[in-house]
């Protein structure tokens, strides 16, 4: 069994998106707030993390910044995994407002993350997201303990839990 410590990134500064009217993946450049940085330093003190062999992380700024803090505090290497990125609310990468994001999230939730029969949506479905994240985790199943830094929606599909606070640790195991 491999034990994964799923750590959601610290609190991000979403206001940057609105200030710069960022679109698509540009919206994922938001760094952590000062509070988010403090959250991650606090999380790094959790003794369970001392067992980890490495950190794998989403490529998004908020996750990379979280991983950098954990790496420094725990003296662990970081591997960046593109497929640990957050749920894609718009596979066309065109949305550019918080209002549009909220519309897409509401549609996703209304549909339970699954496209209605015979229909498609522009958002990434729950099965697509779960498969993407599963494929990354399986590549690290030869390790005993791995820290995974990523995102709330991505982790929710793995552990079937609704509330995953910023900088929290969720234990998740898979067989080798």
From TrEMBL:
GO terms for molecular function: phosphatase activity. Pfam families: His_Phos_1 (PF00300). Coiled coil: none annotated. This is Broad specificity phosphatase PhoE. InterPro entries: His_Pase_superF_clade-1, His_PPase_superfam, PGM_Phosphatase. It comes from the Bacteria. GO terms for cellular component: cytoplasm.
